[in-house]
Amino acid sequence: MHSGFALGGAAPGRDSAQVIHRYPQPWPQLAPALRTGLSTRSVEKITRSRQHYIRFTLPHTYRSLLAHHIEQDFSMGYGSINGFRASVASSYNWYDLQKDEETRLRLMPFCFMDANSYYEQHNTAAQAMSELLHYYHHIRKVGGLMVTVWHNDFLGANPQKAGWREVYETFLKEEIYWD
To answer: Sign of torsion, CA 164 166 172 178?
Structure first.
């Protein structure tokens, strides 16, 4: 299966760089045109990616990202539970085993996704905050990089997601911004 592209943004008040989210689609010939169209609408060059639903196939997906001049990918994480899929809290260059070479594609593994916490782990907002802090303090101890994934519906006014926006804001205000 091949992918199309959609544009996403950075956290409010943070790096303004855009992240591209790739969505499964049946027309591979459209992917370059979609990326070109997004690039012309964006102020910045598009160099970051995350696979929607964390769906990717090795080595095809990463080779495709490299062919489209993507420099960083944020897909290395679990789609059903929070934790360290790559077993590491730092970024690293993808190594293509079949070609026996290190590539320029930088993988940025994430350890927490709001949807995992809510839909799969059935956590409340308070439990999610506790889990976020758990990962944050462990990562901070080793000087690692904490990458999280948040979706618009958790940060909006959806009554089913009450309290989740506050978790995000509180985490950023009380933990991240003061380090």
So the answer is: negative
